[in-house]
Amino acid sequence: MDEQIISTLHFKNSFAALGGDFSTPVTPSGIENPWLVSVNEDAAELLGIDTAELQQDWFLRWCSGNITLPGSAPRAMVYSGHQFGSYVPRLGDGRGLLLGEVDGPRGKWDVHLKGAGQTPYSRFGDGRAVLRSSIREYLCSETLHGLGIATTRALSIAASNEPVYRETTEQAAMLIRLARSHVRFGSFEYFHHRGETEQVQILADHVIEQHLPELAGCNDCYLGMFRHAVHSTARLIAQWQAVGFAHGVMNTDNMSIIGDTLDYGPFGFLDGYNPEFICNHSDHGGRYAFKRQPIIGLWNCNALANALTSLLSVEALTEVLEEYEPLFFDNLLQLHRQKLGLVTAEKDDQSLIDDLLTAMTANNVDYTIFFRKLCAFQEKRANDPLRDLFLDPAAFDGWAKRYRQRLLRESEQHSAAERRQAMLKTNPKYVLRNYMAEIAIRKAEDDGDYREIDRLLKLLQTPFDEHPDCEEYARHPPAWSQQLSVSCSS
Ligand code: AMP
Ligand code: MG
Asked: What is the average pLDDT score of the chain?
């Protein structure tokens, strides 16, 4: 093998070293005659791969599952989880493999190959990923990163003409995902529900050693780990709510133990503000509706608590669970204040925000567009571009009057210009609306044209900046986007 490859990526396999109870060795089954669809240079940099190397043959062969790099020990991880509220005793990596951990210039990353073929956990699945859902994950994980939200990252997509059968015949693809950890709430649930308490402890020790070294050796290290999971989940979901992101499948097997957004499927960003928004068309009961994400986050933390009862007392677990709600609400209120450009705190801020969101719901006001336009709010003018977003502009006028008074009380703290600058860094101009991903997918599938993927990638990595050549994506979504439907199938 090429010397350069050997020097590029240094794998560690600390998870593999936990042994066969936790994961199973599986060799990736590569896709035939692959080509590179897109590669994310920002993510490559995290691994210390430079741009020139991305064009080399080894990179394509590697990211399409056709070679295993020296030092990498591919494993399928086992986990279980609550899917739509019901416990499924064994899930696991059915179509993805942990290739190992790579020490990059700024930290260590799990490298995961998604779509790498069947594993002992594939159940009835083919182990494959399709181009469509790979593009969605690729773009959305980089969108959340661009928005400053903790997430897995995406390095590359490779594709092939191999057919994959879903509702229709689709094209096979493989995605390389980077994560700080692939340990899920469901990883703990798996061992707990089998009565394998020793493995629960080994897994907890692993998470602490790898991700929370400051807790290692402390008496209450397991409580610290649980508290970290609960707090980071509460903070993460507050960020999702503030930016209008719906995950779509918040099953406990899709919840990262360190609180990163994980497993992108039928996600969606809000267009018009609507708390009832259900992005996943398979979610008939609306379990994962936008407004339910915070409570589901807590429900999931509760499932995790249950899985840790061999390590911690119910009293201690309950005490930590009780921290979730206030922390979530504090975080969300603070994020909403930032969206309004407020630097001080007043007790009526919550009602100022609630009343705005109620009016936005009633008037079907686009969430992203409204807040971006709010950055240019004028204290002394009528703010036509904002009021025009409301079916009933009087609803905006009433709220704007209160907002204006609230801003006046802040004016000693910061000027309107300072407020505007801060708001432009908080309220993105661009988010990945479903129709945007769809445009990129159609060009990719129909014409083999991947330029829109790269264009969206660049745009969404800096969503707070102006991009004059992408102005169309800052407007209301086109009417045809209403017909799009995304489901769990991928
Ligand atoms: P997801 O909904 O993608 O989080 O997947 C839930 C579970 O189904 C995980 O255990 C996946 O590994 C598995 N799975 C999803 N799609 C496939 C597939 N095409 N082949 C095998 N397993 C799959
Ligand atoms: Mg999953």
From this structure: 96
Q: Give yes or no for a contact between 275 and 291, defined as CB atoms under 8 angstroms apart.
A: yes
**Chain center to CA of 248:** 11
**Signed CA dihedral, 14, 109, 296, 277: sign only:** negative
Scan for tokens 């995290």, then name that residue.
46
Residue 7 above 60 pLDDT?
A: no
For position 46, what pLDDT does the model report? 97
Distance 199 CA to ligand 1 centre (A): 23
pLDDT at position 1 is 52
Residue 111: how many other CB atoms lie within 10 Å: 25
User: Is 253 a residue of the active site?
Assistant: yes
pTM of the model: 0.97
C-alpha 341 to ligand 1 mean position (Å)? 42
Tokens 């594993």 sit at which residue? 119
Six-digit token string for 31: 């896709």
Write the single-letter amino acid at 406: R
Report helix, strand or coil for 293: helix
Residue 102: strand pairing partners = 11, 109
User: Cβ(355)–Cβ(425) under 8 Å?
Assistant: no
Q: What is the dihedral of CA 320, 233, 121, 118, to 10 degrees?
A: -160
Which residue from 116, 113, 91 is spatially nearest to 100, judged by alpha carbons? 113
For ligand 2, the distance from its centroid to the CA atom of residue 377, given in whole angstroms, is 41
Interval 200-219 mean pLDDT = 96
**Which of 77, 122, 189 to mutate to test ligand 1, by most ligand atoms within 8 A of the CB atom?**
122
CA of 263 to the centre of ligand 2 (A): 5
Please write the tens of the pLDDT for every residue from 124-182: 999 999 999 999 999 999 999 999 999 999 999 999 999 999 999 999 999 999 999 99
Residue 184: is its pLDDT beyond 80? yes
Tens of pLDDT, residues 309-320: 999 999 999 999
Best residue among 78, 84, 95 to mutate for probing ligand 1's pocket (most ligand atoms within 8 Å of CB) is 95
Cβ contacts of residue 73 below 8 Å, gap of 6+?
Answer: 11, 13, 16, 25, 100
Which of the 8 DSSP states describes residue 480? G
Give, using CA atoms, the residue closest to atom 1 of ligand 1.
263
| Token pair of 417 as six digits | 């210009």
Report the nearest atom of ligand 1 relative to the CA of 119.
Answer: 21
Cα–Cα distance, 246 to 237 (Å, whole number): 9
pLDDT in tens, 225-241: 999 999 999 999 999 99
Residue of 253, 260, 263, 283 with catalytic role? 253
Domain residue extents for the chain: 3-179, 342-424
Q: Are 111 and 178 within 8 A, CB to CB?
A: yes
CB hemisphere CA count around 363 (13 angstroms): 22
